[in-house]
Each structure stands twice: as C-alpha cells, then as structure tokens.
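Here is one chain, start to finish.
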Amino acid sequence: MNLLRRRACAALACAVLAPAFAKDAFRTIGWDDLLPRDWDPWADFQGAGVDLRRLSDDDPRAAAALQRLRTVWDEAPLVAALDGAAIRIPGYVVPLEATAQGLRELLLVPHFGACIHTPPPPSNQIVHVRLDKPHKSLGTMDTVWISGRLQLARASTVHGVSGYALAGLRVERYAAPPR
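Its structure:
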C-alpha cells in the first residue's frame, strides 16, 4: 500500500474511532451504581444471635463468621444492566501485573486500603482492570479515573474476588468532578 493510501486509511480510522475514545463517550458512574438496589451485604448476619463486633480474633465464632462473610461477599450480586457499558469510574489502584513496560493489570477498588486489608470488599465493589497499554506511573493506592467497557465477570485474585472486568482504554489521575 502506498504512503498516501496508508495516511488516508489512518485518517479515516481516526475519524471513525475518535468519538469512541472521547471522554464524553463514557458514562461516569460511582461505586453505588455497581450495587443492585435491593442488596444488603449484611442481611445474612442479621439475627445471628452473636454480636460480631464483640468477638475477639481468636474466637472460633469470629473465624466462622469471616469465612461466611467471604462466601457471601465473593458471590455478591451484580448489576446486569451494566454488562457491556462504556463507563468511567474513579477508584484506588491495587496492582496485579507489572512488566518492564509498566502496570498492565490491576484491581480498582472504592476506598483506600481495600483489598490490602482483610476482608476485601464484596465482589461487586472490585473491578478487575486490564489496561490496553501499560502504565509506568501507577502505584499501589494511587487514585485514578479509568474508562473502558465493563463486563460482568468474576475473577479470583490474591487480593480478592472481583465481580466486574473492565477493558481499560484510558487512565487519568483522579480529579474531583466539578460541582
């Protein structure tokens, strides 16, 4: 293909694809949008007859409650209407896979320290992100906006179970939205 034809094809591709990558093409959502409206993460622990807040760490009932919590939260319900949505969401970075070129895979979480401490958030509050391009400047608990296509997809990692997957097309340092 000659140079002029390649440039024309590249210009056409940019014109066609540019709207898909514009900031406005992604719907900004918050973490509450990932929660089904009627889901109560503590419902399974109501009326248990034990005040979990008063148990010591070495109490066998505390270990059993933590295991039950992990099961309930790992299987947390997802919002089916978001499957395939082009979204933009803020969060904190929990690195998963870094290469010499930079960070390629991460968990995005809603609050500082999530997934680093026990227990991690429910799976509907953890997004497994695979970046289209590695980023060298991202580190643990950096705050970012990530834009991309969201999918319902559970994945188990060393830091917790995610309920959503995001094909990360754009990463920006976090800045609070204008009011």
